[in-house]
Design a protein that fits this description.
Helix content: 25-40%
CATH architecture: 2-Layer Sandwich
Strand order of the largest sheet: 1-2-3-5-4
Structural class: alpha+beta
Number of domains: 1
Distance between the termini: 21 Å
Order of helices and strands: HEHEEHEE
Number of strands: 5
Shape: elongated
Radius of gyration: 19 Å
Number of helices: 3
CATH superfamily: Phage tail protein-like
Largest sheet: 5 strands, mixed
CATH topology: STM4215-like
Length: 180
């Protein structure tokens, strides 16, 4: 039986579902979508083909900290009552091909404009995904904090951006954990 994190994993999948719904509305939606682990998402690791140039959208868990008091502040008091709320930072990201020169040419302004428009459309889809995420569970209102959208450096011909969001996760009950 597979044991998945009951606090963080469901939130990551819900945000991914919203991102997929909204990214399908862009002109050339990314072909590859999914959850990714790690400190950063390597745009050049492919599953079956060139994920970057066919488009890659992801959600990954960045951090989580205990936050039972003022959201999203991290608790500084030791655990006393066996339950603890969480502030969970999730990252949405989208990358796609940047214009690539060959030996005899450089990318044109029109090519750069087209990829810039696509990256902007992806950023708008990420913003809409946050709204979708809140609407999916109205109790989240006031407990979803979008952070700044950040462009990604061009890496191996890939360009895009990330948007992180801090969400309040449910408290976990330590009385059910381990031990006998």
């Amino acid at each position: 039986m597979a044991l998945h994190d009951p606090v963080v994993t469901p939130l990551a999948y819900e945000l991914l579902a919203c991102l997929e719904q909204e990214i399908d509305k862009v002109e050339f939606p990314p072909k590859y979508r999914g959850r990714r682990p790690g400190q950063i998402v390597d745009h050049l690791i492919s599953t079956t083909s060139d994920e970057c140039c066919e488009g890659l959208a992801w959600v990954r868990v960045v951090t989580f900290v205990p936050s039972s008091g003022k959201f999203p502040d991290q608790d500084s008091d030791p655990l006393k009552d066996g339950t603890r709320g969480w502030a969970i930072t999730l990252e949405m990201g989208v990358v796609r091909c940047s214009p690539t020169p060959d030996e005899t040419s450089i990318p044109s302004s029109a090519q750069w404009n087209a990829v810039s428009d696509a990256v902007d459309d992806d950023a708008a889809a990420m913003r809409r995904a946050i709204c979708c995420f809140i609407e999916a569970s109205p109790s989240r209102k006031g407990f979803v904090l979008p952070l700044d959208w950040q462009p990604l450096d061009i890496e191996g011909g890939c360009v895009g951006g990330i948007l992180r969001v801090i969400v309040r996760g449910p408290a976990c009950d330590c009385s059910e954990a381990g031990g006998s």
